[in-house]
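Lab notebook: predicted structure, single chain.

Context: the supervisor wants predicted structures on file for every construct in the current expression panel, including those that have not yet been purified. This is the next one on the list. No modifications to the sequence; it matches the entry in the shared construct table.
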Amino acid sequence: MSRPHFDTSTYTAQLDEKVERLNALLAPFAAPAPQVFESPREHYRLRAEFRLWREGEQRHYAMFEAGDKHTPIFFDDFPIASRKINALMPLLKSAWQASSVLSFKLFQVEFLTTLSGDALVTLCYHRPLDGAWQAEAEKLAADLQVSIIGRSKGKRLVIGRDYVEEQLQVAGRTYRYRQPEGAFTQPNGEVCQQMLGWAYDALGERQDDLLELYCGNGNFTLPLATRVRKVLATEISKTSVNAALANLADNSVDNVTLVRLSAEELTEALNEVRPFRRLADVDLKSYDFGCVFVDPPRAGMDPDTCELTRRFERILYISCNPETLAANIAQLSDTHQVTRCALFDQFPYTHHMEAGVLLERR
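Prediction complete. Output recorded below exactly as produced.
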C-alpha cells in the first residue's frame, strides 16, 4: 500500500466542510457563527506512533489503514508531525540498524515533542530489557539529546525524564507544562494555544469562582485560574493529577484546589448524595461558582453531570466531538443559550475537530 499524501492545497476546502458541519449541528440552538482557528498545514502534530515492520534485515516505520493490520504503509518522514519528530526519525532508525541490542524485538516507536523543542522517545519491545539495553539506550539518549523510555511486558525503564516540558503563550504570559508519557496531551500545540486564548477571553475577568471538570494536566486550569477568585478542579487520572499539581507549583498558581474525583463522583458530592474522603478538607459551601468549565472525553458529559452544569449561570465547554456536544446542548437548551462558538482545527486532513461554546442562562 502506498503512503498517504497530505495535500496542503485541500486544506481550505476540508476546513470549510468542518465549518458547515458544525453550523448544521448547532443550528437548532440559534448559535452564532463560529470563530474559526486554523491549523498550520504541516508539522503541527506533536505526537506520533509507528509500528516497526521488518523486511529482510531492515525495520521500517509503518502505519496501517483502519481494519488492516497486514499491509504496512512505510514512512521515512511524516510531514504532519513536528519538525523535531522528522529530525529524529532518520537518526533513530540509523541507531537501531547499527545496534542489534536496540533493534532486537523492537516493534513500536512513539514520539512525544513540544513547541519548545523538548522530546521523549518510547521504544517498545517483545522481550525483557537488561543492562546491555540500558547502556545502549543511555548512549542514544545522550547522542540525540532526548529522554528515552523502554517498555516491555511488566517493565518500564526511564532514561532521563518520563515527561516533556512545554511552554505555551496565553494573553502575554508564558505557562510551563509537564506532559507525561502515556497521558493525554493536546496533539496540535499551535491550535492548543489558540484554544487556551479563546477560553481565557470567553471566561473574562471575574470576581467569583470556577468549577472545572476533566482538568487533565491543568492545560486550561493554569490560564483560567488567573481570571477568577479561586478554582475547584477535578480529574480522575492519577498520572494527570500529579502532572497538574506539578504544573500549578511550577507556575506559582496558588488559588486552585485539585481533587482526584470523576465528574460523576463530584456530581454526587455537590448533590450531597454521599461524602468522599478526598473532599474531607474541602469546604464546598465556601465556593461562589459563577461558571463551570468542562472538557470531557469524546462521549461528552453523562446526563447527571450535564444536569449538574445546568445550575451554573455560565457553562464554558470545549469538545473533541461536536455530535456529543450538540446532544449535551440539547439537554441544556431550555435553560441556557449559546452566546459564543468556536471551531479549532486540531486534526487537519481528518473529519475530527474541536469546538468550543459558551452557554449562558436565558
